[in-house]
Amino acid sequence: MLSVTTAIRFARRSISPSVNSIRWYTKPRRFARVERGSNPTSLTHHDLELFEGYLENTNFGSLKSTEAQSDNRIVSGFRYTGRRLSELVSSTLRNLSDATDSDPAEDTVARQRLTEKEWVLLSKVKLYLKTSNDRSLYDILRRNRVSIPTLVDNLSRFHVSLIIKRLTDYQMEIMKRFIAEQQFSSRLRKDSDIVGLAQMKDKTYNGVRTSILKISQHAHLNTLDYETIVTFCMRNLRFRDAIDVISDLETRIREGDTSLSLTNSLWGDKIGILSRSNEQTWTIDRYDLKSNRAQLIPEGYVYPVGETDILQLLGQYRESGLILDQKMCKTIVLALGKSKNLSKLDSFIQGVWGVDTNSGELVEGFTMPSKDSMVYPNFDLLRCIELAYSFNSQLLKPLLICNTIVQKYGLTSQRSQKYWATVLECTALQCENVYRDTQTELWRKGDESDLSEVDLRRKIFDHLWQHIMTIITKPSKAMIKLRLSHGSLESLLEDLPQIRERSIDPKINITSSEAAYNENILFSYLNTCRIGLMKKREFYQAEHMITQFSINNRMKDVLLKKLSNYQQRYLKRMNQERVRARQQIRDDDDDDGMFGFW
After folding, report:
1. Hey, is 515 helix, strand or coil?
2. Which end of the chain is more exposed for a tag (fewer CB within 10 A), N or C?
3. How many domains in the chain?
4. Each residue's pLDDT tens digit, 52-104
């Protein structure tokens, strides 16, 4: 069971945060505060030129050709098919069903020592465990928390584990709906549905956490229970709650409980929290990569059980004798990258996947892991590699490594949108950092040079986007947002005919949601191009673009209204400047006349 100290800390954080503090989607990039100790970049303009040369001389189309090759290499690791599979599933479910049945003798004894109210409550809990009604199970435990110790004493360990699993699954299902709703919500208006769902998400998290805490104080939890609770906390970005549960588990192990142990999942969560390498906490120099509001551990946090140094933690994991799996690989890559230990990161990648990080080629004679291996790479792992090196101001190196892995291991491009979105974002932010640093240095020296001719940000992003579009057929929503934020105006204008054609093609817009999605993309493109043309004072070109590419009157009227409002503000500002200039001339003439008189 959880210790009293952990229980107190766990309960003190039961106050629900405000709705506005819960943001699962990425917020606009903002400057990091000085006191945050942001990670300074070491990239130079010369590095950007080298990266641009690599993009110009590299054909990314070869990455897509591996898709056909990989289809022939698929090795099924599933041992059971057909009738054998059906029998296996049936027998497994039968065993689980039998485990939920109560022993009549035990029921008689329990009936004698329980009150009528407690017996009815126990019967209802057992009934809900046999059904799929997770909400009823959550509600009855929430309303009867005082009776949880009595319930635990009269339930088997299997029932206790099942209750914990069902409660956490219920809350995480609400969280999935919350994330899905946020993808379609607008920040420009207050959506009552999303606000209510956010409040329900927080309320159920605190309710489930309180019920689990009450259960853990009166029951002996097993390793799987701890793993379920930690995963529940991690999915809700409550890292402090998760590390408290892990520390309590390790305390029980050190006290001699041989039935408990740290699994790969628990090791991964522990290392990720203590090394502060969870993806939601990353920044690349002055910009936040992910701005999710997470419950972080404080700066001066001291882990009560064991060390917090990344190398010592990895040494302890190696001594545990566990077999490396994909989650641990991603955790180790992120932790080594966050600790800036690039030499260890290079050797780890070369030892597991056989890629020479200096040349970007596969080591000669290396035996690649089989497709059913637990360390076989995928695009989620490549995202971690990209993040780890980008955090250390490496622009070309991660792309070389990942391209080699994609080619040699035959990874398909069907689910690579998230990886390529990470590549685009990391590249754009690093180029932005170099440009900002150059601007700052010139400003300090009093130099007002125009950097537009040597600014490679847009050019590099456009090259990278063109290469990626030869690999994937449809960019994700995150990729399009990055394209609009970092792409050049010229390239966006070139894309407009294709975007408009896609928004009116009946073969593509089969459903109403697909049609609305493509219409919103076209509107975003037109609005971004309108802003770019207005900044260049090309108002006639902006009006012509809106009239030519709008697909309905509503879209055209909104954009033309925005353009007209900006023109009015611009003319008003120019008129004020002319008035001030004339007034300054009059004042100068008056001063000259006064001096002549005297």
Report:
1. helix
2. C
3. 2
4. 888 877 877 667 654 434 444 444 445 555 666 667 666 665 655 555 555 55
Parent domain of 544: 488-592
Please write the tens of the pLDDT for every residue from 462-483.
Answer: 999 999 998 888 888 889 999 9
Cα separation, 141 vs 125, whole angstroms: 8
Any domain includes 406: no
Domain boundary among 302, 322, 342: 322
Question: Could you give the angle at the alpha carbon of 561 between the alpha carbons of 559 and 562, nearest 5°?
Answer: 65
Torsion 431-437-440-442 (CA) sign: negative
> How do the residues of the chain divide into helix, strand and coil, expressed in percent and rounded to 5?
70, 0, 30
Amino acid making up residue 38: S
Residue 284 is classified by DSSP as: E
CA atoms within 13 A on the CB side of 279: 18
Task: Point out which residues pair with 295 in neighbouring strands.
Answer: 238
**Low-confidence residues of the chain, pLDDT below 50?**
4-5, 7-37, 66-77, 186-189, 291, 594-598
Query: How far is it, in rounded angstroms, from Cα 513 to Cα 2?
Result: 47
Residues 6+ apart with CB under 8 A from 225: 160, 161, 164, 216
The proportion of the chain whose per-residue pLDDT surpasses 70, expressed as a percent, equals: 77
Residue 371 exposed, middle or buried by CB count within 10 Å (0-12, 13-18, 19+): middle
CA distance 12 to 7: 9
* Residue 304, Cβ density class (10 Å: 0-12 exposed, 13-18 middle, ≥19 buried): middle
Domain final position from 322, 346, 366 = 322
* SS3 category, 418: helix
What is the C-alpha separation between 434 and 49, in angstroms, rounded?
A: 12
CA dihedral 335, 337, 343, 345 (to 10 degrees): 60
CA distance 493 to 541: 11
Identify whether 474 is part of a domain.
no
User: Residue 137 and residue 419: Cα distance in Å, rounded?
Assistant: 39
| Both structure tokens of 370 | 């089989």
